[in-house]
């Protein structure tokens, strides 16, 4: 199963997922990125509007970018 890493960035600040996730494929990684973005949008105490979720696979290939 492929391994994916997720990071959230606003271009200046970055929050990285150190462990990542093993997921079935790129489509599953995109769904997870959308879930992360949705959770951040719903966070009551933070403004994540200018942030994006970036997904890379275990080779470092960019898989997806999702706007928060």
Can you give a write-up of this model?
A hairpin with a 4-residue loop joins strand 1 and strand 2. With 68 residues, the chain is α+β, with helices and mostly antiparallel strands. Strands 1, 2, 3, 4 and 5 form a five-stranded antiparallel beta sheet that branches. The mean pLDDT is 95.
Which tags fit this structure?
single chain, 35% strand, globular
Question: Secondary-structure map with pairings?
Answer:
Layout: E1 3-9, E2 14-16, E3 21-22, H1 26-41, E4 52-57, E5 62-67
Antiparallel strand pairs: 1-2, 1-3, 1-4, 4-5
Q: Termini, distance in Å?
A: 27 Å
- Helix fraction, binned, reads 10-25%
Oligomer: single chain
Number of strands: 5
> Would you identify the regions where 5 or more consecutive residues have pLDDT less than 50?
none
Cα-atom Rg, whole angstroms? 12 Å
Described by the principal axes of the CA atoms, the overall outline is globular
| Total helical segments | 1
Structural class, from secondary structure content? alpha+beta
- Could you report the average pLDDT, rounded to the nearest whole number? 95
Largest sheet: 5 strands, antiparallel
Strand content: 35-45%
The secondary-structure element order is EEEHEE
Q: How many domain regions?
A: 1
